[in-house]
User: Which sequence fits this backbone?
């Protein structure tokens, strides 16, 4: 069953045009001119129940506008939109009972009262029974370690503490779909990791469907198996994260640190006629570039045993680099031409290192 079903969804805004100069300002007082701007342009996608999907794009690509339509905040200009079996902007009262929403830069908690009081108010908004509320609250508070924060005013919480409370507020009524718009923005790595682990557990144990928009692609890598990529209001990629990496990754590099000095000719002989490229970092360290269609294990099997090795490191193109190149090209359909990597790059001391992340 589909949690979210979108067909040809479009949202246009009427934007006022301001004329220049004093004369133009006077004209604007009596007769304003407007232009139509399309923020989301006829997009279609389906998300099955229980999936964690990443929804990514540059600033102004249309991510937040889509989320606001999916949650019933905005009414679409045209297109079909069904979430949890409801049309969000039509069946508002019933619809909100089944969704949770966290906007990273906006709070649903009351600023000057204690956190527990905000939760009590939200219980009444969502019409959750006292027994169900207590059971759910105790579980969430223990999981996110909020015991010491419940009686503090929201204004006295750190950003990380507030975001954990925002997650509890969004989940008090046990929604089946959770919309997250930049939930880890501005957080330190420890809090980000805690929130990611919580979301993975929530999805695995309760089957909660999660749609996540973020500029932090580490969130996507940690949580999502599927990515929808938006550019200028249109979907340019909808598929698996691993497929995206496979299509656009420029290959991998393996760094070998030998116990004794080696030469470029010697290490090249280890792999024979394999389509790889070697370079020397120093007299005991060499790197080999391996194209994406070749198995790393095949190369390792050729090298290991030829000479004593003290350390091996594998480098792979990271997601940030891949997404940046897709936006620069304007399309995710065609991968880059790997032949453009010149032999000169292979002879440099640190070949193809930009955008590589050690793992």
Assistant:
């Amino acid at each position: 069953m589909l949690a979210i079903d979108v067909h040809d969804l479009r949202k246009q805004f009427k934007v006022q045009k301001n004329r220049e100069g004093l004369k133009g300002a006077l004209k604007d007082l009596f007769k304003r001119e407007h232009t139509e701007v399309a923020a989301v342009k006829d997009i279609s996608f389906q998300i099955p129940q229980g999936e964690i999907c990443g929804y990514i794009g540059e600033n102004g690509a249309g991510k937040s506008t889509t989320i606001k339509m999916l949650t019933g905040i905005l009414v679409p200009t045209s297109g079909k939109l069904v979430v949890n079996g409801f049309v969000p902007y039509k069946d508002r009262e019933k619809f909100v009972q089944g969704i949770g929403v966290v906007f990273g830069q906006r709070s649903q908690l009351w600023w000057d009262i204690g956190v527990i009081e905000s939760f009590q108010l939200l219980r009444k908004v969502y019409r959750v029974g006292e027994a169900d509320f207590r059971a759910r609250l105790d579980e969430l508070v223990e999981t996110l370690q909020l015991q010491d924060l419940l009686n503090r005013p929201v204004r006295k919480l750190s950003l990380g503490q507030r975001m954990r409370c925002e997650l509890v507020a969004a989940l008090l009524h046990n929604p089946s779909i959770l919309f997250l718009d930049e939930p880890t923005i501005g957080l330190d790595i420890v809090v980000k990791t805690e929130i990611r682990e919580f979301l993975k557990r929530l999805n695995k144990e309760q089957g909660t469907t999660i749609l996540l928009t973020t500029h932090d692609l580490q969130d996507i890598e940690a949580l999502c198996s599927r990515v929808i990529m938006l550019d200028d209001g249109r979907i340019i990629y909808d598929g698996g994260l691993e497929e995206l990496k496979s299509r656009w990754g420029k290959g991998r590099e393996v760094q070998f640190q030998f116990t004794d000095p080696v030469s470029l000719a010697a290490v090249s002989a280890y792999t024979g006629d394999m389509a790889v490229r070697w370079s020397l970092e120093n007299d005991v360290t060499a790197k080999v570039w391996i194209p994406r269609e070749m198995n790393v294990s095949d190369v390792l099997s050729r090298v290991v045993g030829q000479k004593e090795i003290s350390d091996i490191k594998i480098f792979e193109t990271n997601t940030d680099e891949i997404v940046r190149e897709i936006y620069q090209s304007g399309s995710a359909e065609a991968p880059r031409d790997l032949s453009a990597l010149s032999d000169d790059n292979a002879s440099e001391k640190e070949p193809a290192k930009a955008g590589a992340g050690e793992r």
